[in-house]
Amino acid sequence: MQLTLTGEKDDENSNDEKILKEQQSDTTSTSETDRKHRYFIGKDYSNIYQKDITEVQDYKTDSVIRTLVPRMLWHDEALAVFGQTTRDVARYFIQR
Questions:
Q1: What is the pTM of this model?
Q2: pLDDT in tens for each of the 96 residues of the chain?
Q3: Termini Cα distance of the chain
Q4: Can you state the percent helix, strand and coil of the chain, rounding each to 5?
Q5: Residue ranges per domain, the chain?
Q6: Burial per residue of 32-44, b for 16 or more beta-carbon CB atoms within 10 angstroms, e otherwise
Q7: Which of 20, 41, 64, 96 is least crowded, fewest Cβ atoms below 10 Å from its Cβ?
Q8: Which ranges constitute the DSSP H helices of 1-96?
Q9: Cα–Cα distance between 43 and 41 in angstroms, integer?
Q10: Residue 47, helix vs strand vs coil
Q11: 23 vs 1, 36, 94, CA distance in Å?
């Protein structure tokens, strides 16, 4: 991690600018090209906003350039609510 610190200014925004520059210069070595083993192979690493998945049979070939396009996150979630809690949740959403 590299941090770049600048000299403070006399105005009240100097701390905000200093923090912003520290955040912008924060770099880590987690580049996808530095890894020997990949967690998401081929089509599993995708971003449908950049390019849709094509040639599904060839699943090991990347559809996007990993160093330029971030991976699109997805989540599978489920929830079941029973009893009095169900009425409370329903009432909350009806009132909104």
A1: 0.26
A2: 555 555 544 555 566 676 666 655 544 444 555 556 666 666 666 656 666 767 777 767 777 777 777 766 666 667 788 889 889 888 988 887
A3: 45
A4: 30, 0, 70
A5: 1-30, 31-95
A6: eeeeeeeeeeebe
A7: 96
A8: 14-24, 84-95
A9: 6
A10: strand
A11: 11, 28, 42
Tokens of 21: 């520059």
- Coil, helix or strand for 51? strand
Q: What's residue 65's pLDDT? A: 73
Tell me what pLDDT residue 31 has. 52
Helix (H, G, I), strand (E, B) or coil at 42: helix
User: Residue 74: helix, strand or coil by DSSP?
Assistant: coil
Distance from C-alpha of 60 to C-alpha of 41, rounded to nearest angstrom: 6
Q: Which residues have a Cβ under 8 Å from the Cβ of 6 and sit 6 or more positions away? A: 17, 18, 21
